[in-house]
Amino acid sequence: MSALSIDIEKYLQDIDPDNVCGDDLEYDPAFIALEQAIIGKPEQEIGDTIQEAEPPDWKEIKKSAEALLDRTRDLRVLVYYLRSLIALEGLTGLSEGLKLIDTLIAKHWDAVYPRLDPDDDNDPTERVNILMALCDHETMLRPLQLVSLVESKALGRFCFRDFMIAAEKMTVSEDDNAPKLGTIEAAVQDSDIAALQSNLASIVASAESLNSLEDFVTQQVGINNAPNFEALRHLLKEFEHLLSGWLESRGVDDIDAPQVDPESQDEMASRPQATKKSISGAINNSQDVLNALKLICDYYKKNEPSSPVPLLLERAQRLVGKSFMDALMDIAPDGVSQASIIMGAKSEDE
Fold it and tell me: How many domains are contained in the chain?
């Protein structure tokens, strides 16, 4: 993977010993200007003239976000910064931006903006809603679908959306100049293998940061208030599957994992229970179990609100990590004394 283009360590440092995350700049002119700039310019009709919409100036947004991050540690600015990195640097920008958000939140959860309000029982809703922008279709998922995954000097660049259209998994208007699947496959064969490996490494690193972020926030706010990043995680799985297949078609089976610097590895290991989830979706630990149960509950609450399944699974969530006797106390308190007698008798026999 290419060298980091942003200085993550710089933004992990305290802004001031007495004010580690700096000031709240929500009403600062620079913050307000950034929020306006990231919208871009909508189409305007002036008399008989129509001025076409203009996309955001991502170079200026990146510059403005970095200037604000010198003065504040704000989740909103971090998300805007991530979007600019994706627009300018593609998958490398995604992996670096997610790593920055993940590590900064883990280090400065108590002080990062917007602050938790003790008078409102430290309600995390505002923070969670900001983080859920990572799964917004228009501002995050769609731009990622347009990021280059493979590049051929002869045939050009192709993104995930190009592949989906070529494979007839996505419909488009007749006016769209859709690429042919054979063209994309030819581009894969003509591309630089190291570039494909780098893209795959960025995807795997992004998924690890996303899962680590979700685990950490879940530990802080509780599973019922935690963000659900499944939409972005699913897209990353699609990217991984596609790139793995392309590399296999080039005869590359053993794909090197992304390099992790020792300091970053130590920082990740120091977090309490900040477990990593496999990008494949496998269940590897109790936190994965809790996340899976939460996803199932969310599905039923949204699609089958009358189903009793969430009630049962929410009870199951409480049992994760408990001993047999603690679980029995939760399920059938009246049976605890009888179980104690039986287990005691068994112990005496042994």
Answer: 3
CA angle 52, 58, 63 (to 5 degrees): 140
- CA separation for the pair 94, 68 (Å, rounded): 20
Domain with 312 in it: 286-319
What would the DSSP string read from start to end of 128-173? HHHHGGGG-IIIIIHHHHTSEEEEETTTEEEEHHHHHHHTTSS---
Q: What burial class does residue 109 get, using C-beta atoms within 10 Å of its C-beta: 0-12 exposed, 13-18 middle, 19+ buried?
A: middle
- List all residues 6 or more positions away from 166 whose beta carbon is below 8 Å from its beta carbon: 178, 179, 180, 181, 183, 184
Which residue reads 């690429």 in tokens? 179
Q: DSSP secondary structure string, 198-257? A: HHHHHHHHHHHHHHHHHHHHHHHH-TTT----HHHHHHHHHHHHHHHHHHHHTT--SPPP
| pLDDT 10s digits, 131-184 | 999 999 999 999 999 999 999 999 999 999 999 999 988 877 665 677 899 999
Q: Are residues 27 and 145 in the same domain?
A: yes
Residues 113 and 237 in one domain: yes
pTM: 0.73
